[in-house]
């Protein structure tokens, strides 16, 4: 019997979605009307996987919603509505849920994404499943697939140690920057960094059919280089463009298909993967 542990998250997703055409980016992009494309995404936030039992409720609420908002940013899109499924045990402290929902209201005031429904059901641990609906001007979503040889590679902020610093619970979804980047008309590929720069850049390389060279001295980091490359949950934007931007420029796209080099040497693949922990 083959299990998810044998396959790992990424192989399993690839196999399950092999025949699904719309799948593969941070959000799905679908035709809506003459002006806009529809943007859809969802993310589960699970106790002991994405947060701890002692994580303050406001931080849980922040991460649950802002992970989804970060996926909208990754497309250069505007989030509009959220639907939230809460799974919890009968012993769940109710005030924790009230504080999570108070955080949702605060985030609505800041980012304009309103919770318009959801569900509540019983399960073994606390889970928040957030579904997001939004839009982007027609044909303008920034995909992972447009990077070209010679493009610069940028990140919008420091990487690594998001667990130690608590950034994984406090990060700002980069919606404003994402809009400016989209409106510049020069960004060729974009995504957000959830699994670490080394893993997520590979997604852009694969989708775009290109390679990349990273320059370790240019990677903005909180701790070690290793942590910046592999920790994940930074929720910064990673994007490629031939234009100059006032963001850290960490490398260059090359024509060497799917080859990823760091200071001239092949970069090892290693990252958080569900079912392999
Ligand atoms: N269970 C699933 N069913 C259908 N599509 C999925 C499933 N899990 C992931 N995907 C799709 O596969 C792609 C890669 O997923 P993932 O690596 O989780 O991306 P992300 O890091 O942006 O969440 C995304 O386009 C996502 O929508
Ligand atoms: C409490 C806690 N445990 C473990 C981790 C490590 N971790 C959990 S999920 C994850 C990667 C991102 O989560 P995933 O569900 O794969 O999000 P996606 O990439 O699909 O958006 C990491 C680095 C963490 N940040 N916090
Ligand atoms: Mg995922």
Strand content: 25-35%
Strand order of the largest sheet: 7-9-6-10-8-11-12
Count of DSSP E strands?
A: 12
Oligomer: single chain
- Please state the overall shape, judged from the principal axes of the Cα atoms: globular
* Fold-level CATH name of the largest domain: 60s Ribosomal Protein L30, Chain: A
The total number of structural domains is 2
Tell me the structural class: alpha+beta
Give a short account of the largest sheet: 7 strands, mixed
Compile the SSE list and pairings.
Layout: H1 4-7, H2 9-16, E1 28-31, E2 36-46, H3 57-75, E3 78-88, H4 94-111, E4 114-122, E5 127-137, E6 152-155, H5 162-165, H6 167-170, H7 175-184, E7 189-192, H8 197-208, E8 211-214, H9 225-230, E9 237-241, E10 249-254, E11 260-262, E12 265-266
Parallel strand pairs: 3-4, 8-11
Antiparallel strand pairs: 1-2, 2-5, 3-5, 6-9, 6-10, 7-9, 8-10, 11-12
Bound molecules: adenosine-5'-diphosphate, thiamine diphosphate and magnesium ion.
In short:
The chain is α+β, with helices and mostly antiparallel strands and 277 residues long. The chain is 31% helix and 27% strand. The protein is globular.
């Amino acid at each position: 019997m083959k299990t998810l542990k044998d396959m790992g998250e990424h192989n399993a997703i690839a196999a399950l979605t092999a025949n699904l055409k719309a799948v593969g980016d941070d959000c799905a992009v679908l035709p809506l009307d003459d002006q806009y494309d529809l943007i859809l995404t969802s993310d589960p936030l699970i106790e002991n996987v994405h947060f701890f039992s002692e994580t303050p409720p406001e931080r849980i609420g922040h991460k649950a919603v802002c992970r989804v908002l970060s996926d909208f940013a990754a497309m250069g899109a505007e989030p509009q509505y959220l639907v939230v499924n809460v799974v919890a045990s009968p012993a769940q402290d109710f005030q924790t849920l009230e504080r999570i929902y108070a955080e949702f209201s605060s985030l609505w005031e800041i980012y304009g994404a309103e919770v318009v429904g959801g569900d509540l059901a019983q399960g073994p641990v606390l889970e928040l499943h957030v579904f997001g609906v939004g839009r982007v001007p027609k044909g303008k979503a920034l995909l992972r697939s447009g990077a070209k040889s010679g493009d610069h590679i940028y990140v919008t902020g420091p990487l690594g140690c998001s667990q130690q610093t608590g950034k994984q619970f406090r990060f700002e979804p980069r919606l404003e920057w994402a809009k400016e980047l989209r409106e510049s008309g020069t960004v060729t590929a974009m995504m957000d960094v959830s699994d670490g720069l080394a893993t997520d850049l590979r997604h852009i390389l694969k989708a775009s059919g290109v390679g990349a060279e990273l320059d370790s001295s240019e990677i903005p980091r909180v701790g070690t280089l290793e942590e910046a490359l592999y920790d994940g949950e930074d929720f910064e934007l990673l994007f490629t463009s031939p234009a100059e931007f006032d963001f850290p420029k960490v490398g260059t796209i090359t024509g060497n298909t799917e080859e990823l080099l760091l200071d001239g040497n092949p970069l090892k693949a290693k990252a958080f993967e569900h079912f392999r922990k």
